[in-house]
Please model this.
Amino acid sequence: MIVRGAPLSAAFYDREPDRVARELLGAVLSLDDGHGVVSGRIVETEAYLGPHDPASHSAVGRTPRTWHMFGPPGTAYVYFIYGMHWCVNAVTREEGYGSAVLIRALTPLAGLDRMRLRRPKARRDADLCNGPGKLCAALGIDRAFDGASLTGGSALTVCAGEAVPDAQVLVTPRIGISKAVEWPLRFVVRGDAR
DNA sequence: ACGCGGATGGCCT
DNA sequence: GGCCATCCGCGTA
Model:
């Protein structure tokens, strides 16, 4: 069975973040930690448009924390939040612009045994990766991957998967933010995330 | 099935 | 000093 195609290219990411967020649904995020591959199908994303988007980290400018959000398209921007969680983004548009897509949920595909070890509190497999902090814990994504390329050549990659038809895509406002709360920039595969 | 609050630490003002 | 692009457990129903 084919669950994973070629890595998505820099050209894929070098477009408007909402477009990339929509098309990232169905793609496969995978991390090879040297013992094997841990991966999941992307089922929830959010677009952060850039410096003019009040909810975007890039709105504060290029600081040490937000540095890699201004990197070239296809870069991983990984940040630490609430004193204990990591979250991973895929940088979009041209280098220096500052837009990205937050990966919010995965359906586990491979390496479930390793995910369970890293997420002992998950009672069901469905709870392994159904949140931005949870999926980073399950895959073992942390500061070490901030600035890594997702387009191949690093241990963390995003590969083509089965396309998700429009009829299965739900668009809603973004979650957990306090600015620009109405903007419809969250993309969810119906019935698959949350 | 909800809603609420505590944990926990780095970063910007 | 205050604010987080969160998660989890506990309370009420």
